[in-house]
Fold these 2 entries.
Entry 1:
Amino acid sequence: MTDLIAMGKAARQASRQLATLTTARKNEALQAIATELETQAEVILAANREDLENGRSQGLSDALLDRLLLTEERLSGLAADTRRIASLPDPVGEEFDSRTLPNGMRICRRRIPIGVLGVIYEARPNVTIDIATLCLKTGNAAILRGGRETLCSNLALVRVIQTALAKTELPETAVQYIDNPDRTLVKQLLRLDQYVDMLIPRGGAALHRLCREESSIPVITGGIGICHIFVDESADLDRALDIIENAKVQRPSVCNALDTLLVHRHIAAEFLPRIAARLATHNVELRATEEAYTTLQNSQHGARVVLAGPDDFDQEWLSLVLGIKIVANVEEAIAHIQAHSTEHTESILTNDWHNATRFVDALTSSAVFVNASTRFNDGGQFGLGAEVAVSTQKLHARGPMGLTELTTYKWIGYGDGHIRS
């Protein structure tokens, strides 16, 4: 039987120990995790193969299987990311907003760990390492609950983490995993506010809605990305082809992959056949509005094009499908994005600085790019080492949540016998 109360108590106790560790001790644990990932690579990959076999037998889509897959290269990348996090500055203990009051008392704010994080996620075993390492660097304990389809992989990874913690004489309960796939345990976790300080769901809309409606713990939501690129009439079309190809096909199963392409009407007849031909080499299916469909039907490109359905621009595809719409100008592009965006990632391709500025100012997504792929909205790409999530809500963090976003702060006052009159 999984005892979440016992896990919560152990996590709280571990968090108190972690909160006072030196940066050197935390980095030692991270280096040990990286080494264990390399030493136990075959064990981890064998567990992952078991998950993949189970997933195929259960009919998981290619997109989900890609999210689930661990390879030697991806595992080496996780070890490298762990060492990178160890090399980053430790935000815990940083003092800021220091000032002296008129009465002579000095006050400041100091960054401290949040405490215990509960993280619920689906078919991404790399998330286990990302969350654990970021939490350890910032002195937070973690209770993890991955998807049923990643159970073998996640258990192997958590054993690696706990082995490294034991070797560096830190509490193994700093990172715990709910190994029972029973969904009722998720609802129990949502009510564990006596021990868990912040909850992060990384999954689909149904999981986010469940957490927002039933959690008694503050929830950070994000990770659902209906991402857009608008190709303005002034864009460099050769570069636009490369950017869109990268955004759509480099890894289509992730949240910052491109879902909807908006093209200015003045360049649509020239550009749409070119991008269709480029994406046809990757077997991308195009879901086009009537105007875009007609334009593509009148040209030779080799892509599969179908008329877009009424809900196609509200889809996070996570696969080789792309919505296409022709728009009159930047204002129509902005209006479409505002109507359909999940506030994850948007990009404008343009050489018109006025349109670029208007696009950036008007949209409130967690990341807005000019002349760049949506794939850059990522903790590693932003120099954060990794991320626990890409937050699309307004509080308390937005975009990739790295080390600083896993801290809060306390006020400290330095007096000299001060009393309040």
Entry 2:
Amino acid sequence: MTHVTERWQLKGKRALVTGGTKGIGLAVASELASLGAEVFIVARKQIEVSTVTGKIDSSCGMACDISDRLQREKLVSAVMKQWGSLDILVNNAGMNIRKPTTGYSDDEYDIIMDTNLRSAWDLCRKLHPMLRDSKQGNIVNISSVAGQTSVRTGVVYGMTKSAMIHMTKYLAAEWADDNIRVNAVAPWYISTPLAEVVLRESEYRDEVISRTPLKKIGDPADVAAAVAFLCMPAASYITGQTINVDGGFTIYGF
């Protein structure tokens, strides 16, 4: 029983979660902490970080705009100073601007790319030494079904999420000898403040549900459970994979 229990918990692990004060990121941080991990939570606003870390046991954090290279460097230094080691990196922070392709400005393109993709790529590289030294390092990238099929708007967002899936495969192969597993989770619409803005339109919400075999919008806890599983010893033979947490949407598409 002890062996079984150890395979399904994260006691003693140290995890960094970006975008960890709202929606999916908050659910992931809470789930990892509930399974025994210490969690370092990152978000843009210090007041939000302070509020969340005050509610989650064994957590700490800092304000950081991960789209900014210099702030990412400060984040890596802070994790090193706080812990000196790292077992889990969850690249969750992201953003979207929904509009027709010809409507994007260069600045909008840049901020989506920097926030969703460049930040994840850079943090993977910069935190690689600590993850390697863990001997059981784990990276989980929060992608999206928009990286696998068209969801009508947000082409730049979809590009970043598709690239994240391919980055996951490359790093999984390259860093396997460093005992770092790299996987991704790809959600469909999840009940978060950002998603609810879009789903307020009843006709669109009805169509989303009609194209989702489980006939419901997902919950942040559904995504958090998949992330936690991928970080556990029980998933020790899984790497380079993308788990769709989508209620079956990618079976149909729109």
